[in-house]
Amino acid sequence: MKIALTGNPNSGKTTLFNAITGKIERVGNWAGVTIEKKEGDIKKSLNKKDMDIVAVDLPGAYSMSPFTSEESITSTFVKNENPDVIINIVDSTNLSRSLFFTTQLLELEIPVVVALNKSDLVEKKDTKIDIKLLSSFLGCDVVNTVSTKGGDNGLEKLISTAVEASGKKQVAPFDAKGVDMSARSQVEDSDKKRYEFVKKIVDKVEEKKIDSARQTRQDAFDRVVAHRWLGIPIFALIMWCVFSISQAHLGPVLADMFVGWIDGLYAAVEGMLGEAASPVLKALLLDGIIGGVGAVVGFLPLIMVLFFLLALLEDCGYMARVAVVMDRFFKKVGLSGKSIIPMIIGTGCAIPGVMATRTIKNERQRRTTAMLTPFMPCGAKLPVIALFAGVFFNDSALVGTSMYFLGIGIIILGAMVVIRITGEKNAKSFFIMELPEYRIPSIKRAAISMWSQGKAFIIKAGTIILLCNAAVQIMQTFNWNFEVVAEGAESTSILASIASPFAYLLIPLGFGAWQLAAAAITGFIAKENVVGTLAVVYGITNFIDTEELALVQGGTDVAQIMGLTSAAALAYLMFNLFTPPCFAAIGAMNAELESKKWLWGAIGFQFGMGYVVAFVTYHVGTLVTEGTKGTGFVPGLIAVAAMTGYVIYLMNKGKEKERLKFAVNARG
Ligand SMILES: Nc1nc2c(ncn2[C@@H]2O[C@H](COP(=O)(O)OP(=O)(O)OP(=O)(O)O)[C@@H](O)[C@H]2O)c(=O)[nH]1
Ligand SMILES: [Mg+2]
Questions:
Q1: Does 3.40.50.720 match the CATH number of domain 2-207?
Q2: Which residue range or ranges hold the FeoB-type G domain (predicted)?
Q3: Could you say which ligand is closest to the alpha carbon of residue 73?
Q4: What pLDDT band is residue 323 in, cutting at 50, 70 and 90?
């Protein structure tokens, strides 16, 4: 039998789904987290009769009526699942809004069981809900649940009630039969009546004690934290703290332990191979695989700490406030209010971030968001940030924080450019982000979130990154005649000869060495590769100084080996962050953009953006630190001018198109 889980966004559907199936699908303290349905078998402990029960977690919706909200679905959406029973998850702290959708579900002629979820919060607030009365009004079973806790959380009862309900006939207490769903006024009329019907029920079953002191405290706090302007420096400060802890304090301490193990492994394998082993094999195993992968994996603890802290911020409700602060800017440049969600998800990984754009209904807004989301630095880019911040800039927290804000800045600039090119300036978004109440974040939830992202990182390190490092090591060892490259003739290797032409193009950006070009190229396979490849080509086994309990600091060996000035190093970092994302993320972009023209436009734009940002950073940086301009200024300037000129040309063409459209409209 099949049970569909449905309800309003953020009511706890996925949390409940995870609790009854034992899966770990993504939850988040805001609306619109789940974008694709997920299926899972009910846990044995909840399925006493050992039946065949599948649960389906669905994206949240507020309504089934057309016209009403951005978060509406059609009845066929639920019916297509062909469920035997619907469990309607209701956020019991928000009864009146949730029941609107409930009454629509009751019309589908599929048995419904209502889970009054988050009932722990209701209890805390001293609100009373008479579930017997509610059940009789709705004409379906109602069960109290708490999906975030173990023990008696009502889930066993919920499942057994759902099993019993299967096959029963469902009668709707409020029926909108006969309403023409394509006629706006009829739908609005019926919705109004439905609201009144729901309100009457809520008035009767709910006894609310409004804790106005608590509410006022929260509101006062929000007036500061989510303030139009103050919100931004507060966010910056918080991100700075997050980066300090993860990259300068707790992270390196844990990383040190980790790097110790990797060093141990290196020594053990070296011992096992013995003196007699071939130098090529030694280089491949030790420097290529253990060294290259180890250099990336060494950053894992830093990243885990960062993910953990971000998960805490999300869980306590702060990230939803950040979304509100940013939302204002995004709407101004023609993005949807929902665009912020893909971007926050994109800080973990650009792929789910890009996929999350699917919930944006306006095509242009959806495509713009999908092409700009990869500018948010993702988890894979963190080792690159950490490496450069550690090697070239003593105050590493500032580098990371500014990369996030630069990413946001580029997104806003990009949106402004895209809207000029495509026209359609008047598309407005009315989506309003709902603010969850503040709460004490759960260590357990944050740990789960950290673990699931960390796991993905480890799997990637053991597969793609390992293969890439081995390939890089081989290409570096041999020349095109498959002879081992002699010492001093490194530039004749396969790797050097492939990377050199690209390196030429990078001279105006301050980093024209083939080694750096090779690292940037492997970065398109996975961004962590930038670190791994640098380790391999420069023969550095790890970037974390085990003696100093910190990342290697400026002026030390690594900076010298790479031979970069700090301006060039910053430019290189930005180039890796703001050119196109890895191939997998480009694949996700391709799926969501649904247009080759947009895809190539997006990739071109990302390349151009990365190039221009790196060029400006390198030359301005060199001017500030050394008082002169950097190398390759003139050819670089020509390239940058050509790119900018082309974009301006497209923007003017877009303006002309918009003008003509307007003229036609005015005439017609
Ligand atoms: N206190 C409390 N919090 C809960 C409960 N169930 C879920 N939550 C929290 O509610 C938030 C939303 O949970 P999700 O499971 O992501 O909600 P969802 O309904 O799947 O949301 P969408 O996928 O966006 O539609 C999370 O922060 C959960 O920790 C509960 O029973 N009690
Ligand atoms: Mg969900």
A1: no
A2: 1-168
A3: 1
A4: confident
